[in-house]
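TA notes, week 10

Several of you asked for a full example with nothing omitted. So below is the full record: structure tokens for the whole chain, then the designed sequence directly under it. When grading your own attempts, check the secondary structure regions first.
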């Protein structure tokens, strides 16, 4: 799986699954378990699996892309697409205030992460007319 676009595709799916799970957690809410700990109520297993599985794969694909000498937009594509999918899915699951707050937070985070990655990619490129060292 050395192809750049395979890594991007897997990362987009993983980030989408992760933020879909976040949307599901917002919809279900949290309940108190033993010893004062909070977690998803019964029936939230699919969100839990997507949260942890998607998170691990998403971070792995983002780290692989961050280590490459590629433009920053490919790295920015992963969390931005996942956050967009998560914002839409949380609004599909419900229209209460908590859903709107989560969707707005995901949208703002997606914009900020994209701008930061694009700025990082732009700053790492040499000025016009100069060659990159090495």
């Amino acid at each position: 799986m050395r192809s750049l676009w395979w890594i991007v595709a897997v990362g987009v799916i993983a980030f989408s699954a992760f933020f879909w799970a976040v949307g599901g957690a917002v919809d279900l809410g949290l309940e108190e378990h033993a010893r004062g700990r909070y977690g998803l109520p019964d029936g939230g297993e699919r969100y839990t699996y997507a949260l942890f599985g998607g998170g691990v794969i998403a971070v792995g694909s983002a780290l692989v892309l961050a280590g490459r000498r590629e433009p920053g937009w490919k790295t920015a594509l992963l969390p931005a697409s996942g956050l967009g999918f998560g914002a839409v899915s949380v609004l599909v699951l419900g229209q209460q205030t908590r859903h709107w707050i989560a969707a707005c937070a995901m949208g703002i985070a997606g914009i900020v992460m994209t701008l930061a990655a694009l700025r990082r990619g732009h700053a790492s490129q040499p000025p016009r007319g100069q060659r990159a060292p090495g």
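The beta strands are 31-32, 38-39. Use that as a sanity check on your answer.
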